[in-house]
Amino acid sequence: MISIDSLNKSYDNHHALKDLSLQIAKGEIFGLLGINGAGKTTLISILNGISKKDAGTVLVDQFNIDQDLKKIKRISSLIPQKFAFYPTLTAYQNLEYFAAVNGYTGNTLKQRIHYAAETARLSHVLEQKATTFSGGLKRRLNLAIGLLTQPKILYLDEPTAGVDPQTRAKLLDEIRTLSTHEGMTIVYTSHYIEEVEYICDHVAILHQGNIKLCEKKEVLLGRAPTICIKVDDLSVARPMLQTIDGLEVKHNSLCIPKSDHFEACLKMVLPILLEHQVRIIDIQQVTSRLEDIFIQLSRPLKADTRINK
Amino acid sequence: MMRTCKSRLILLTYSLKKELHLIFQDMHALLVLFVMPTVFILIMSLAMQNTLGTQQNQHHIKLLVIDQAASDASKKIVSALEEASFILNHHNLEIDKQAVVTALSATNTQVALIIQSNEANNLNLSLMTEPVVDSRTLALISQTIVGIQTRHLIEQLIDENTEALTNSQTLQTLLEEPLQSPQITYLFRTESAEPDTRPSSVQQSVPAWLIFSMFFILIPVANTFINEKNFGTLERLQSMELSTSLFLIGKIIPYFLINQIQIILMLAIGRFGVPLLGGQALEVNGPFEGLIVMGAVVSLAAISFALLISAFSKTTEMSTTTGGMINIVFGAIGGIMVPKFVMPEAMQSLTQISPMAWGLEGFLGIILHGQRIQTILPEILLLVTFAATCLLITILKLNKSYG
C-alpha cells in the first residue's frame, strides 16, 4: 500500500530522514515507534503532503507522491496528535466544515457526517460545543473528522494522548475495528509502547531518521528471549560483570539476550561468579517485550545524543 | 473527490459560517470592532466641534497683534479691536513664518494680525493663521477689521467736513484702499486647509475612527488563524485537498463582510447618533458608490495586513502586540488621531507612508469634497497594491511553512 525508498529530508543543518526505506502492506495496522526527534512526524508530514521530501521515492496505493499528491490526499487522512478542530463550534459544525473542505455537498455531505459520527461514536453529542467535551470525546471528534472521507489509509499520530485508560482501551478497539471491518490501512504512532504492542500487526522502530528495525509483531516479540540468572549477592563481582558486552546487570540478577553472542557471554560470566563465590538461585527464560526491544534500540541513540551535545 | 465550482462555493459558505461563529463568540474582538469606534466617533465628534468647523464666540477669540506700522491709524485699529472684546497679545517681531509660528505657540494664540504701512503711508493688514481656525472665525475677524476701518474713515470724513463728502469720485478713492479685507495666510498650508474644504468634526471623526477600527480586524483574524496553526488545524487542512489561496479566500470573505457591517454602523452613528448628543450630523457630499468602493479597498488592505501579521506570528499575543502597535503608528502618522491639516509640514509628508492615510484621504474626498471615484483613484490603487503585496507575502510564507 505504501512503498518508501531512500527517503531523505533535512531541515537547515538537521538531517531528519536518512535514506529511509519502508513497506506498509494493505489493511495492516503499522506501528511507528521512536523517541522524540527520531523522524516520525517528518515522515508522516511527507506522506500527507504537508512537507516536501528532498530525495527518494514514495508510492501510496501505486500513486507517486511527486505526480499524484492530490490523488493520494483523496485516499488518505491524517489524525494529528493535537485537537485539530474548532473548540468553540459544535461537533456537527466542525464535521460540516471539514466535509465541505473535502469537497462534499448536499446529501453526500450529510451522509459523510453521519458515517463519521456513527463510526467514532459521537452521534449523541453532535450538537454540543467541542470545548465542553472530555478528553476522550475530543479524541473521538478528532478521529471522526479524519473518517469523513472514508479513507483507505489513516495516519494516527498519538491518538490516545491524554485520555484515561478505560477510554483508551475503547478507542484502541475502535481503531482495530476500522482495520478489520473497513479494511483501512492504519499507520499508528504512539509513545505508549503497550498500545503499539496491543494494536499493531507490524512495528517499525525509527532511530535517527532511519528504520532501525521493522518486523511483524509476532516475529519481533518471539525473536530474542532473555536468560535471567538470579543470584544471592553481586556486590563484589558487579564491577567485573559490568565490563561484559551484551550483559545487563540488575540488582540481584544478570540478563543475557539469547542472541548469537549468548554462549560467549555466558562463558565470561560463569567464571566470575565462581571466582567470587556468587550463588545462583534461579535461571529463567524471559520472553521479550516490545518495550525492552525499544529501550535496547534507543539506548545507543541517547548516548550518541549526549556525546553530540 | 474533484473540487467543483459548486463545492468551492459550498466551502466558502461553510467558511463564512465557521468564521462568523468564531468571531461572534469573541467578545474582545467585537468590543474592538464595534464599540471602540462608536465611542471614539461620539467622543471625538463632540470634543472637536469647537475646534473644527464651528464658529468661535467673538469674546473668546485671541489675536496676536504685530503692529509694525505703529502709526495713529494702526493704534486706532488695535484699540478698536480691544473694544470689540478680542483678546490681544502684542508682539514685535520680523514677519517670518517660523517666527510667527513660535510666537503663536508662546502666546497660546492661533491667529496673528500683522499691521504694516506701505510707501504711501497706507496700512497693509494681513492675518497669519493656523489651519485649525475655521473660516467663519476668520471671516468674523476680517469683518470686524473692515468695520473698524470703515467707522474710522467715516469719522475722519465727518470731522474734516471736507468737500469729499459731496464729491463722489473723491469719496470712492478714499474708501477703496482702506476697506480691503486683510489678506489671510495659512501656516502649514495644505490643500485641505482651505477654509471651505476643511472637514467638520464629525466628517473627520467618522472616516478616521472607522478606518482605524477596520484595521483592528487583526484581532479576530489573528485569534482564529494562530489557533488554527497552533492546534494543528492548519496542518490538517493542508493535508486535505485545499489550496492556500482557497483557504485565504475563505478567510477574507467573512472578515470583509464584518468590515462592511462596521462601515454601515459607523456612518449611521455619524449621521444619526452624533446629532442626538448635540453634535453635527454627518454630511456626505460625494456619490454613495464611492463610499462602497473605498470601504471595499480599505477592508481588503486591513484583512491582508492582518493575515500577513498572523502568518508571521507564533502566538496571538505576538500578533496583537506587533500588529496593534503598527496599527497605532499607522493611525498616529496617518491623520487618524490628529487631523492631517493641523500637522506641521514635515509630519504631513510623513502621512503618505500610512495606508490609513490613503484610506482617510479617499473617504474625505467623497464625504467632504464630493469627489467621484476617478478622482480618488490614486488612493484606491495604493490600497489595492498594499493588499496584494501583503497577500502575496502571506501565500509565500504559508507555502514555505506547509510545503
Q: Give helix and strand order of chain B, one letter per element, not per position.
A: HHEHEHEEHHEHHHHHHHHH
Structural shape of chain B:
elongated
Helix content, binned percent of chain B: 55-70%
Strands of chain A, count: 14
| Level-1 CATH class name of the largest domain in chain A | Alpha Beta
Tell me the CATH architecture of the largest domain in chain A: 3-Layer(aba) Sandwich
How many strands appear in the DSSP assignment of chain B? 5
Q: Distance between the terminal alpha carbons of chain A, to the nearest Å?
A: 39 Å
Q: What's the quick description here?
A:
Chain A is of the alpha/beta class and 309 residues long.
Describe this structure in words.
Helix content of chain A is 39%, strand content 26%. Chain A has 309 residues and is an alpha/beta fold. In chain A, a hairpin with a 2-residue loop joins strand 1 (2-11) and strand 2 (14-24). In chain A, helix 3 (91-101) crosses helix 4 (106-119). The two termini of chain A are 39 Å apart. Chain B folds into two domains: 5-51 and 199-401, no CATH class; 58-191, D-Maltodextrin-Binding Protein, domain 2 (3-Layer(aba) Sandwich). Chain B is built from 15 helices and five strands. The longest helix of chain B is centred in the middle third of the chain and has 33 residues, at 244-276. At the A-B interface, helix 2 and helix 3 of A face helix 1 and helix 9 of B.
Write the layout of secondary structure elements.
The complex is a heterodimer of chains A (309) and B (403).
Chain A: E1 2-11, E2 14-24, E3 29-33, H1 40-47, E4 55-60, E5 63-64, H2 69-75, E6 76-79, H3 91-101, H4 106-119, H5 135-147, E7 153-157, H6 165-182, E8 185-189, H7 193-199, E9 202-207, E10 210-216, H8 217-222, E11 226-231, H9 238-241, E12 248-249, E13 253-257, H10 262-275, E14 280-286, H11 290-308
Parallel strand pairs in A: 3-8, 3-9, 6-7, 7-8
Antiparallel strand pairs in A: 1-2, 1-4, 4-5, 9-10, 11-13, 11-14, 12-13
Chain B: H1 5-24, H2 27-47, E1 62-67, H3 72-83, E2 87-90, H4 97-106, E3 111-117, E4 123-129, H5 135-160, H6 168-176, E5 183-186, H7 201-215, H8 218-230, H9 233-239, H10 244-276, H11 288-312, H12 316-333, H13 345-350, H14 355-367, H15 377-401
Parallel strand pairs in B: 1-2, 1-3, 4-5
Antiparallel strand pairs in B: 3-4
Helix pairs in contact in B: 1-10, 2-7, 2-10, 3-5, 7-10, 7-14, 8-11, 8-12, 10-11, 11-12, 11-14, 11-15, 14-15
